[in-house]
């Protein structure tokens, strides 16, 4: 984000009253919400698993991952996020648009102690929270071992 | 020139060659006049030498070359090799193995061949000068520089020239040939060595030439030398071996990148290597050398590609079942026929893919002759090793994982099971003990057994030790019989060796075997009779990827129970359920089994059960049975198993998932985990 003219393409989706985004390069696909097959998990935001063309992929409840509760909307979608090593679905209320954002519009999060949040994009009067895909996975992996819920401070940040 | 892209292939082939050599030498020690094995030894040693020289590993090449001299003794003497010679050869093989592993880790060889070469020379000196003259070809291994030092644009070709039988002065021809090659580039190595040509009496000349000239130019120059009957010029920047005295194995031939045979000038592009080059090489080779007629019959495939093939095959099976289900509702003329055709082709394809992944269990067994020989001589025991059913085929992944557990069992049998000769004689047994490693198919399983006729497990001693280790209570000591004792050996925390010996010790007990096999979805069953020996049976599923399962529903969610673990199913209302110490128990005619609710045990949480579970499935765990209460019995299915993501808790007794034809995911029940955590079963028949 040092150069003024670089742009990023983001997939923007709604969750509760807020807008979130993921870099388009790491969105594998978006599917309509289907009830995941529930599995026992030590991570409380894991809603279960779905089959994506034969592969079994975990589904995260993004709202509870970020620390707040959310009603399941009629329009809900599952965004399949992909990193170099992991693939998972995150449940969102609806996918709104693909936005091209100037890097100048993106600001680091003050006190970003939440690993799933990378930055905030200010577009006119909208605030879009840019998520860090790797961060979403990272804690799921570590938590799975310890059984210790995390994400402290997220709520403060999101509702601030 | 960069040879690094060939390194993995070099490593894989070298390991293979070394294993084969180990085996062949053991065989020749027992059976000195086995010509076939002698020829095999030559072929392998020669390939190994050529490969390592090409890759620039001069020390390995030098050592193998010197070993060839010792092998030559085999051809001359009917009485085979002395024990001492065999020991030195084994030492060399070990050094080569170590060198190959070093290359694998650091990319450079650390081997100092000199001490071993000296020892080998000592063995060979017994030869008479006449025999020395009889030798064809090899005099000194050429001084090969590392290939990496070459200037860009230059590559190394391997030239093999055969002189006609009428050639009167082979040494002169050799000189002329090397001269001719020297004009086109630098002769960096040769057999015979350039300064040793005067003594050359053979008919085959080999040279490695660093040159920037076309292959056919080199070939023409070599063929222009009088008495040269046949020339083969090969790109030496690939793998492996110079084709020489012996026929190369078909596999070895297949991975050679570019081979330009005499007369076949179509492979002149030195950059064509890898897959395309290999394909082009086979026909060229066939044209040039009749004895390589089988080249092209086999293809080496990266194991990872096989896994991918299997993965896509699995997807295909899933999609097919989806299409089949959809087609059931559709009314399109000809659709049913098309679906049937699709099903047939896809089943044939599936069978083929499964078969491609199968390799003979021999791949694991091969290491044992050498291992048993070394261990038994170290322990002062006399052992006859019998390998049975080596051709039994198993999924590649299973074969790969089987090595360590088997080595463990074999070491244990040799160390603790079999007695020294005197003790055996005193017990009225033959001096030589028998160790049998066998493999066979049994239904959907493969059974691999390690059996010895040694002293067996002493229940009293094992019981005492198990008590000391806190594995059993004092009262239980007298109840330990041979069977129970053998099982105790495989329990975690019970190490058989009091002082960790370097043979079976290594700090891990037999429970490591148990753990590994269970990881593979198999089980170990041990039996023993005091004084008569012990047998460990490893029972493994034939393939790990597609399984037959009983599909059931609990809490409206599908679960799949591996069919080979299902004993029978029954309706709960026909049987009495009692509460014993807070746990539910199912009373059957042949025993009382713990009754576990599938929802609790498998979904990992106690959900208020909305429905009554009417059915029970009796499943067999590792060492006991239990009844699993489920809602509905759906039926038998062939399922493609898939790993579950790591987020799925260890608390749930599930080992994987499978996508059903309606797109739902069934969790596969891990019967061993289920029984392991169930309440202590009431003893059953």
Comma- or semicolon-separated keywords:
A: 160 residues; alpha+beta; OB fold (Dihydrolipoamide Acetyltransferase, E2P); globular; disordered C terminus; B: alpha+beta; Four Helix Bundle (Hemerythrin (Met), subunit A); Alpha-Beta Plaits; 5 domains; five-stranded antiparallel sheet; 21 helices; 23 strands; 41% helix; flat
Word description of this protein:
Chain B: The modification Phosphohistidine is found at residue 46. The complex is a heterodimer of chains A (160) and B (685). The two termini of chain A are 25 Å apart. With 160 residues, chain A is of the alpha+beta class. In chain A, strands 8-1-2-11-10-9 form a six-stranded mixed beta sheet. A five-stranded mixed beta sheet of chain A has the order 3-6-7-5-4. Chain A is built from three helices and eleven strands. Chain A has a single domain (7-152), classed as Beta Barrel (OB fold (Dihydrolipoamide Acetyltransferase, E2P)). With 685 residues, chain B is an alpha+beta fold. Chain B is built from 21 helices and 23 strands. In chain B, strand 17 and strand 18 form a beta hairpin. The N and C termini of chain B lie far apart (70 Å). The A-B interface holds A 37-43, 46, 49-51, 53-58, 88, 140-141, 144 and B 314-315, 318-319, 557, 602-605, 640, 642-649, 651-652, 654, 657, 659, 663-665, 667.
């Amino acid at each position: 984000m040092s150069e003024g003219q670089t742009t990023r393409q983001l997939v923007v989706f709604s969750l509760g009253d807020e807008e979130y985004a993921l870099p388009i390069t790491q969105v594998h696909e978006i599917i309509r919400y289907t009830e995941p097959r529930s599995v026992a998990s030590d991570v409380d935001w894991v809603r279960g698993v779905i089959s994506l063309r034969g592969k079994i992929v975990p589904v995260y409840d993004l709202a509870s991952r970020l620390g707040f509760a959310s009603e399941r909307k009629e329009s809900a979608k599952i965004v399949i996020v992909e990193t170099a090593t992991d693939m998972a679905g995150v449940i969102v209320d609806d996918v709104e648009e693909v936005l091209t954002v100037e890097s100048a519009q993106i600001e680091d999060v003050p006190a970003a102690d939440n690993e799933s949040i990378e930055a905030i994009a200010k577009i006119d009067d909208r605030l879009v929270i840019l998520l860090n895909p790797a961060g979403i996975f990272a804690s799921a992996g570590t938590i799975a071992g310890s059984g210790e819920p995390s994400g402290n401070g997220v709520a403060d940040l999101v509702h601030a | 020139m960069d040879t690094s892209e060939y390194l993995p292939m070099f490593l894989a082939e070298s390991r293979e060659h070394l294993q084969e050599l180990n085996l062949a030498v053991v065989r020749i020690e027992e059976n000195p006049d086995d010509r076939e094995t002698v020829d095999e030894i030559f072929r392998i040693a020669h390939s190994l030498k050529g490969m390592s020289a090409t890759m620039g590993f001069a020390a390995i090449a030098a050592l193998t070359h010197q070993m060839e001299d010792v092998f030559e003794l085999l051809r001359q003497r009917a009485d085979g090799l002395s024990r001492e010679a065999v020991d030195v050869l084994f030492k060399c093989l070990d050094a080569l193995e170590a060198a190959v592993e070093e290359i694998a880790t650091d990319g450079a060889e650390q081997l100092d061949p000199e001490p071993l070469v000296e020892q080998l020379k000592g063995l060979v000196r017994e030869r008479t000068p006449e025999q020395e003259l009889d030798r064809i070809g090899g005099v000194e291994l050429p001084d090969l520089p590392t290939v990496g030092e070459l200037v860009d644009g230059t590559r190394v070709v391997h030239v093999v020239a055969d002189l006609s039988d009428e050639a009167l002065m082979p040494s002169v021809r050799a000189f002329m040939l090397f001269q001719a090659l020297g004009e086109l580039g630098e002769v960096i190595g040769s057999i015979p060595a350039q300064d040793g040509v005067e003594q050359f009496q053979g008919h085959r000349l080999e040279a490695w030439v660093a040159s920037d000239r076309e292959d056919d130019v080199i070939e023409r120059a070599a063929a222009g030398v009088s008495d040269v009957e046949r020339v083969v010029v090969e790109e030496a920047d690939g793998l492996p071996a110079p084709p020489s005295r012996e026929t190369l194995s078909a596999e070895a031939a297949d991975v050679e990148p570019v081979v330009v045979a005499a007369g076949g000038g179509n492979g002149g592009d030195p950059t064509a290597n890898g897959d395309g080059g290999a394909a082009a090489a086979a026909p060229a080779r066939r044209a040039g050398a009749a004895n390589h007629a089988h080249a092209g019959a086999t293809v080496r495939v990266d194991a990872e590609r096989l896994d991918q093939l299997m993965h896509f095959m699995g997807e295909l099976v899933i999609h097919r079942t989806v299409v089949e289900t959809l087609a059931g509702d559709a009314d399109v003329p000809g659709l049913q026929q098309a679906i049937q055709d699709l099903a047939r082709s896809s089943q044939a394809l599936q069978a083929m893919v499964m078969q491609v992944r199968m390799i003979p269990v021999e791949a694991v067994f091969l290491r044992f002759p050498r291992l048993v020989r070394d261990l038994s001589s170290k322990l002062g025991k006399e052992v006859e090793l019998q390998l049975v059913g080596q051709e039994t085929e198993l999924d590649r992944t299973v074969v790969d994982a089987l090595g360590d557990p088997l080595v463990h069992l074999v070491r244990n049998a040799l160390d603790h099971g079999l007695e020294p000769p005197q003790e055996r004689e005193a017990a009225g047994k033959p001096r030589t003990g028998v160790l049998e490693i066998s493999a066979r198919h049994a239904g959907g399983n493969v059974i691999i057994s390690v059996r010895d006729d040694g002293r067996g497990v002493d229940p009293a001693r094992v019981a005492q030790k198990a008590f000391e280790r806190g594995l059993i209570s004092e009262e239980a000591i007298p109840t330990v019989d041979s069977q129970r004792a053998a099982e105790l050996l495989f329990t975690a925390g019970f190490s058989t060796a009091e002082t960790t010996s370097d043979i079976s010790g290594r700090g891990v007990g037999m429970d490591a075997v148990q753990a590994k096999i269970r990881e593979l979805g198999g089980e170990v069953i041990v039996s023993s009779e005091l004084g008569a020996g012990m047998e460990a049976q490893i029972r493994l599923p034939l393939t790990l990827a597609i399984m037959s399962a009983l599909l059931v529903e609990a809490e409206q969610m599908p679960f799949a129970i591996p069919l080979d673990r299902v004993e029978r199913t029954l309706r709960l209302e026909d049987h009495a359920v009692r509460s014993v110490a807070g746990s539910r128990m199912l009373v059957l005619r042949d025993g009382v089994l713990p009754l576990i609710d599938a929802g609790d045990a498998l979904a990992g949480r106690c959900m208020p059960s909305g429905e009554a579970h009417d059915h029970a499935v009796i499943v067999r765990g590792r060492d006991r049975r239990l009844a699993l209460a489920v809602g509905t019995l759906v039926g038998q299915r062939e399922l493609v198993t898939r790993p579950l993501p790591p987020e799925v808790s260890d608390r749930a007794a599930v080992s994987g998932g499978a996508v059903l034809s309606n797109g739902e995911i069934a969790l596969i029940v891990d019967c061993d985990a289920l029984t392991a955590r169930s309440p202590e079963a009431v003893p059953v028949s």
